[in-house]
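Researcher: Sequence recovery benchmark, item below. Answer with residues only.
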């Protein structure tokens, strides 16, 4: 098992991570439309507006990515007593697994960035913002809340957008608190004076930010290494991860050789918020106990996913698993998908006139019986979707000692098999609801069932589909294998 496959198999650990995120929160507003003509009033495109969306931006986008990766988050920031501030409060209140601490300063303008987009091209960005330091009472409140949150957090992120939340006084106090509690700190830096980040575990500049901070060129790998080492020599920052767009990322530490990670994006549509994804990926991984190099691999894969999307996007855990196993196995498509993604895939397959099959199971320890079942399933259709029981579902069905392997590890093994075209996890004891949603043309189960006892057979037959009972390979059973292992232990 290679490094990336091993990393993908451990992604479930991110669900146990808890991160405290502090920084400048803002609202990202996207106005989408089409351009069909140039204005007669000047050489500018006329955008015919079709739809608008608003999402959390700045430190709020770090929060969104942390939640998408499965981590819990304590979020600390400051908004104004205005419509945008109320909107941000409402968006965060609608999220699960977040403990919000949004401090309100009367008279302060909450930052909103409005981007006008035609197709995949951003035409214009308009900002409404106030850049001013926080009031002393607000700083004291922010520090107290963060100190309490760090007690049970595995990492602290500081998103410095230069809007005033992370003034030098606040930064020093936050870094001191984290050092005292032994919590790693990941900083998205801004400006020229990085001594303000002294004590940080890791800073994540892009090439332009590194050049601004050092006054040195960053137009080659050697130049980037020299600039990063200059920062390490003149500050007490422990490590620097330089994000280099299509050239990937480079980790520079005090004691080890540089570690370079190649970019993973196949096609770049929008880099908005990609830095926030990197920060979130690093923090979640470190909080879950991953090494710094593994955290960089994870963050790099997550960033490669979001730049392939339009707008301030997030990377979800199942997407990350697909990217990691897909990068290493060179699969033609990402196979581990959500229920909604599976519906999109099936719709596309049906438009091509392809027959969709479905089978399911726990697939805890893959053995020849499983391989035979999957082969017979694929022979009965053009595209095969496998429903996979989550860990919680397996535990209810098989007992507290199962599963042997995590749901993500089991999904990755299934996805690596040529017979399988998509893997969808389900948390119920039976796949009935999943079958009802996917509406497969062919339903396959082992011959130890009858057509009448196969879960979901009524749904498939009612739609004119077919139920196939696959021949069983004698002598193979995960339960018996586990018993043998236990007896020999």
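Model:
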């Amino acid at each position: 098992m290679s490094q990336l496959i091993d990393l993908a198999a451990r992604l479930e650990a991110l669900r146990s991570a808890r991160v405290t995120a502090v920084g400048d929160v803002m609202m990202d507003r996207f106005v989408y439309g089409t351009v069909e003509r140039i204005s007669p009033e000047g050489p500018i495109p006329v955008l015919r507006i079709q739809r608008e969306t608003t999402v959390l931006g700045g430190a709020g986008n770090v929060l969104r990515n942390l939640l998408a990766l499965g981590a819990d988050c304590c979020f600390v920031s400051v908004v104004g007593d205005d419509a945008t501030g109320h909107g941000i409060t409402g968006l965060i209140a609608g999220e699960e697994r977040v403990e919000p601490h949004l401090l309100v300063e009367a008279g302060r303008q909450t930052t909103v960035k409005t981007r006008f987009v035609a197709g995949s091209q951003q035409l214009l960005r308009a900002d409404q913002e106030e850049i001013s330091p926080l009031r002393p009472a607000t700083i004291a409140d922010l520090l107290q809340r963060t100190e309490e949150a760090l007690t049970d957090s595995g990492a602290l992120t500081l998103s410095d957008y230069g809007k005033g939340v992370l003034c030098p006084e606040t930064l020093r106090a936050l870094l001191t608190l984290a050092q005292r509690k032994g919590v790693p700190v990941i900083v998205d830096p801004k400006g020229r004076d990085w001594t303000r980040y002294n004590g940080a575990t890791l800073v994540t500049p892009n090439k332009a930010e590194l050049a601004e901070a050092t006054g040195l060129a960053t137009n080659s790998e050697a130049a980037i290494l020299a600039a990063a080492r200059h920062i390490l020599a003149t500050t007490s920052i422990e490590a620097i991860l330089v994000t280099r767009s299509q050239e990937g990322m480079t980790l520079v530490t005090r004691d080890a050789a540089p570690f370079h990670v190649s970019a993973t994006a196949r096609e770049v549509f929008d880099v908005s918020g990609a830095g926030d994804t990197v920060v979130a990926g690093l923090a979640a991984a470190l909080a879950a106990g991953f090494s710094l190099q593994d955290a960089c691999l994870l963050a790099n894969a997550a960033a490669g996913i979001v730049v392939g999307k339009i707008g301030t996007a997030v990377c979800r855990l199942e997407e990350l698993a697909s990217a990691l196993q897909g990068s290493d196995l060179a699969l033609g498509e990402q196979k581990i998908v959500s229920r909604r993604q599976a519906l999109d895939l099936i719709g596309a397959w049906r438009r091509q006139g392809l027959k969709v099959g479905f089978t399911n199971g726990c697939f805890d320890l893959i053995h020849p019986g499983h391989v035979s079942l999957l082969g017979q399933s694929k022979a009965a259709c053009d595209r095969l979707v496998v429903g996979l029981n989550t860990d919680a579902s397996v535990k209810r069905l098989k007992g507290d000692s199962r599963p042997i392997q995590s749901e993500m590890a089991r999904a990755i093994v299934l996805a690596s098999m040529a017979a399988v075209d998509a893997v969808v996890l389900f948390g119920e004891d039976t796949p009935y609801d999943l079958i009802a949603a996917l509406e497969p043309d062919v339903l396959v189960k082992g011959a130890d069932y009858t057509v009448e006892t196969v879960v979901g057979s009524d749904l498939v037959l009612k739609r004119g589909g077919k139920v196939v009972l696959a021949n069983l390979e004698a002598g193979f059973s995960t339960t018996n294998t586990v018993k043998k292992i236990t007896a020999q232990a």
